[in-house]
Amino acid sequence: MKIILSVDRNWGIGCQGQLLLRIPEDMKFFKQMTVGKVVVMGRGTFESLPGKQPLKDRTNIVLSSKMASRDDGLIICRTLESLLQELKKYKAEDIFVIGGEKVFHHLLPYCREAYITKIDNTFPADRFLLNLDESQDWKLVSQSEWKIYDGTQFCFVKYERI
């Protein structure tokens, strides 16, 4: 299982249900990594998707005790236990956890890889990820060149669980 997301300098990941910054190249990378795979998210992350619709060409799984059942192929798991049972149906390397904060917190211990877009800026944030640079459980294994979008630097990094 893997996580994929963007963070600011403080490892902020969102504010009021939205990404901190939408970077087209990051969106392209996210799509490239997750198409044909399984994406796991919480209700808030699902509701922040365009049109509140499942991401195309992916198996969409939502962890939510409150979300109403749907008939559009979205898989809803009511408990962490039922989610973990559902995920056994898929190859671990095909599962991407995409948010939000609570889902990352619950599933990070099960993840082997983390694909992080680091944004060299700080934003008002109300949701955060554990700082993997300070964690003894993770090591940085690759980093792209720094790039610039709208005056803000960013890079793609990959961590692996030690």
In short:
The chain has 162 residues and is an alpha/beta fold.
Q: What's the order of the H and E elements?
A: EEHEHEEHEHEEEEE
- State the distance separating the first and last CA atoms: 14 Å
Indicate how many domains the architecture comprises: 1
Shape: globular
The average pLDDT value, as a whole number, equals 97
CATH class: Alpha Beta
How much helix is in the residues?
Answer: 10-25%
CATH topology: Dihydrofolate Reductase, subunit A
Largest sheet: 9 strands, mixed
Assembly of the depicted chains = single chain
Structural class: alpha/beta
Low-pLDDT residue spans: none
Q: Radius of gyration from the CA trace? A: 15 Å
Question: In words, what does this structure look like?
Answer:
The protein is globular. With 162 residues, the protein is α/β, with parallel strands linked by helices. Strand 3, helix 2 (43-48) and strand 4 (59-63) form a beta-alpha-beta unit. The chain has helices spanning 24-34, 43-48, 80-87, 101-107, and strands at 2-7, 12-14, 38-42, 59-63, 75-77, 95-99, 113-119, 127-128, 138-143, 147-149, 152-161. Helices cover 20% and strands 34% of the residues.
What is the topology?
Layout: E1 2-7, E2 12-14, H1 24-34, E3 38-42, H2 43-48, E4 59-63, E5 75-77, H3 80-87, E6 95-99, H4 101-107, E7 113-119, E8 127-128, E9 138-143, E10 147-149, E11 152-161
Parallel strand pairs: 1-6, 1-7, 3-4, 3-6, 4-5
Antiparallel strand pairs: 2-8, 7-11, 9-11, 10-11
Label this structure with key terms.
alpha/beta, single chain, Dihydrofolate Reductase, subunit A, globular, two-stranded antiparallel sheet, 4 helices, 162 residues, 9-stranded mixed beta sheet
